[in-house]
């Protein structure tokens, strides 16, 4: 059964973590009017309905129409590669998405269900509205996920994507947060510029930290400088276009043809070198040291999390910002090789 009109207003208000008073203030109506609308004791005027819709960033039809809201209809965020499919589910901006299972930087995490065609089977009683979806290439996302689960009633669902892939998913409404590191050595505002280009006005950035990005190489090479690395006949492993590591490697190679061998993330770059499939590649110091490789520091780069104008007020996003600013998380992050946590938690408007 579709929820009542009253529950639609209440539903979207609670998704944002707002009290009736806060919604009333934002919409320019009285708190008593909000309460009466939610309890179906009052049919709002056209003006009041439009004001509530604007405050909640919904259409009037979503709040007061007879058809089901988008959050009642589950859709695939992207199509599964094979059947049967294991999936996770989450709500983003009022839409419930099904996410086909894939490797994550948290290892194997519990699935919400399985699907074969149109037949779905739930495996656990997880609530889509309690899941925060992040697209990021940060190999240390596990630290944030563990602190988030410890400090809040929510959980993180991470997908490994490059910076620009992450921003695209954010604009498509399929993730709450996009990890971005496109500032580079000569573009101090690069993350904000990239976020504005893709997401438009109204997005914000939350600083996770500043990390070291450089050349990881096999230990037997004993490289002493980036110039030596570039001038040597090495087998390079690269990253896809749109990633910060690819930008760094393109800058390093200065117009040379990029490597044909590509890895999907920082750890994969390091592992390709460790097991002899390549001699060198650009990744984070953390990934290189984990794999026992030599590392030449090229630049320090800001790593931020981007929230769009539609997700920045979500209660899960606000809880994430609190966790990032917390002492336990900052302390953990600061112990990682190549991570500087002195600006962790700073917020920047795009």
Write up what this structure looks like.
The chain has 350 residues and is of the alpha/beta class. It has a domain at 5-68: 434 Repressor (Amino-terminal Domain) (Orthogonal Bundle). It has 14 helices and 14 strands. The chain has helices spanning 5-15, 20-27, 31-38, 46-56, 60-64, 141-151, 163-171, 190-199, 226-231, 244-253, 266-274, 285-290, 315-325, 327-334; strands at residues 74-76, 85-92, 95-100, 113-116, 119-122, 131-136, 155-160, 177-180, 204-217, 236-237, 280-284, 294-307, 339-340, 347-349. Strand 6 (131-136), helix 6 and strand 7 form a beta-alpha-beta unit. The two termini are 41 Å apart.
Q: Helix/strand/pairing class, anyone?
A: alpha/beta
Question: How many strand elements?
Answer: 14
Low-confidence stretches: 1-6
Using the CA coordinates, give the radius of gyration. Answer: 23 Å
Largest sheet: 9 strands, mixed
If you consult CATH, what is the topology of the domain at 5-68? 434 Repressor (Amino-terminal Domain)
Q: Give me the CATH architecture of the domain at 5-68, please.
A: Orthogonal Bundle
Q: Give helix and strand order, one letter per element, not per position.
A: HHHHHEEEEEEHEHEHEHEHHEHEHHEE
